[in-house]
């Protein structure tokens, strides 16, 4: 029996089982690698604006602390559960290890719907959540970051709550906070920039000219929007498809990004931008393009639609967008579709979060140019290692990436041993 249930954790467990078989990891060593070290569940009572008292459920899962503190985002989502949080923590462990960061994976969040909360209610939820986490987090134990439904302001509230408890400013307790409070230049754009940079590397690998390429980006939040803008404005890619939770747009001649940017800045969502280019959100994934970037939720590429994808590069900006069943089909199409797996593709965010943590610890800050140069260096190193391993072993990019990550965590556990 385990508390970690649900389709997202089942997917993470299945992926790990495939890699464990590939690496010939003995059965009696697998549970220690897969299951989290610690899971915390808390109740968060909040006085609502209407005078009522409402209790939200909050979670934090710390996968392993073998290589250093855990690291991971905090998600505010209406349907969040501990199984989803645990899966995201597991994926974060492999991601950090692949990038060579001295972290284990963590993830946390609150089951709430941020758009339905007033600013005062959101602040109350944020502060009470961090207050409940204080016995379990520190700059040496677990460092939080933003995720879906949270942002720089929430991280500022987290930092302030923790700092008030300590009696002095502790900027290194969270990353992704405002630059004025010790955040780093380039953090907000880091994940999307990383996606675009790795797409450019993939284009080089398969001989595709970005300036003559088209892209569809599913999910127009922070990661998706920055990915789209960077692909278009830095590399000359024509963006033909975009979607968020309210609308999907497709135009084979290219969408007007500048006008869309103004619309989203004004309205907050894509809904209402255009009727002429509207398309069903599920159908958008199957339109012809050179680059497909799923940057929204988990499990959007399945066995049902994987065979109908018509892209040349699949760049996984989201965590866990491709199910294991879909992976089997994509593996058969390896010569057609170049997959940049999620633990590589969206690792730019945690890499620059690491840079922020380091800068806060030493109280010495870098320019945005320095941050971006260091980001590209680490991304290039990880990309090349994955490519080399995939070529040498004749395996998919996902198998190569996950194998590297799992091996590094396993080696750390083996070297440290098991405390009696």
UniProtKB/TrEMBL annotation:
The taxonomy runs: Bacteria, Pseudomonadati, Pseudomonadota, Alphaproteobacteria, Acetobacterales
Q: Which organism is it from?
A: Endosaccharibacter trunci
Q: What Pfam families does this protein's entry cite?
A: ELFV_dehydrog, ELFV_dehydrog_N
Keyword vocabulary terms for this entry: Oxidoreductase
Q: Which domain of life is it from?
A: Bacteria
Q: Which InterPro entries match?
A: Aminoacid_DH-like_N_sf, Glu/Leu/Phe/Val/Trp_DH, Glu/Leu/Phe/Val/Trp_DH_C, Glu/Leu/Phe/Val/Trp_DH_dimer, Glu/Leu/Phe/Val_DH_AS, Glu_DH, NAD(P)-bd_dom_sf, NAD_bind_Glu_DH
Q: Which family does it belong to?
A: Belongs to the Glu/Leu/Phe/Val dehydrogenases family.
Q: Under which name does UniProt file this protein? A: Glutamate dehydrogenase
The reply to whether Oxidoreductase figures as a keyword in the UniProt entry is: yes
Provide the Glutamate/phenylalanine/leucine/valine/L-tryptophan dehydrogenase C-terminal domain boundaries: 184-417
């Amino acid at each position: 029996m385990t508390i970690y249930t649900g389709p997202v954790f089942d997917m993470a467990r299945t992926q790990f089982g495939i890699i464990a078989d590939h690496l010939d990891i003995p059965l009696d060593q697998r549970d220690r690698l897969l299951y989290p070290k610690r899971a915390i569940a808390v109740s968060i009572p909040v006085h609502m604006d209407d005078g009522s008292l409402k209790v939200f459920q909050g979670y934090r899962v710390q996968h392993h602390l073998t290589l250093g503190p855990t690291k991971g985002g905090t998600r505010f989502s209406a349907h969040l559960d501990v199984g989803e949080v645990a899966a995201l923590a597991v994926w974060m462990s492999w991601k950090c290890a692949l990038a060579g960061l001295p972290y284990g994976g963590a993830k946390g969040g609150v089951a709430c719907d941020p758009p339905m909360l007033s600013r005062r209610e959101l602040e109350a939820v944020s502060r009470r959540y961090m207050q409940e986490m204080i016995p379990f987090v520190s700059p040496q134990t677990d460092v939080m970051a933003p995720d879906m439904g949270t942002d720089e302001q929430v991280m500022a509230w987290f930092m302030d709550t923790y700092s008030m408890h300590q009696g002095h400013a502790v900027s290194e307790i969270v990353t992704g906070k405002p630059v004025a409070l010790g955040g780093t230049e380039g953090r907000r754009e880091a994940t999307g920039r990383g996606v675009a940079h790795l797409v450019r590397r993939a284009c080089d690998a398969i001989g595709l000219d970005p300036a003559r390429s088209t892209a569809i980006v599913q999910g127009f939040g922070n990661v998706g929007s920055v990915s789209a803008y960077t692909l278009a404005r830095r590399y000359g890619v024509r963006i033909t498809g975009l979607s968020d939770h309210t609308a999907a747009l497709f135009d084979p001649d290219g969408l007007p990004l500048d006008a869309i940017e103004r619309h989203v800045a004004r309205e907050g969502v894509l809904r209402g931008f255009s009727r002429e280019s509207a398309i069903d959100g599920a159908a958008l994934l199957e339109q012809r393009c050179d680059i497909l970037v799923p940057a929204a939720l988990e499990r959007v590429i399945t066995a049902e639609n994987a065979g109908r994808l018509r892209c040349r590069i699949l760049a996984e900006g989201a965590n866990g967008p491709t199910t294991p069943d879909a992976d089997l089909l994509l593996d058969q199409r390896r010569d057609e579709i170049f997959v940049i797996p999620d633990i590589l593709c969206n690792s730019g965010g945690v890499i620059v979060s690491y840079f922020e943590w380091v800068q806060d610890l030493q109280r010495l800050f870098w320019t945005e140019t320095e941050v971006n140069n260091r980001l590209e260096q680490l991304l290039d190193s990880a990309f090349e290692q994955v490519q080399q391993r995939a070529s040498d072993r004749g395996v998919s990019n996902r198998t190569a990436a996950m194998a590297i990550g799992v091996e590094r965590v396993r080696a750390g556990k083996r070297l440290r041993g098991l405390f009696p």
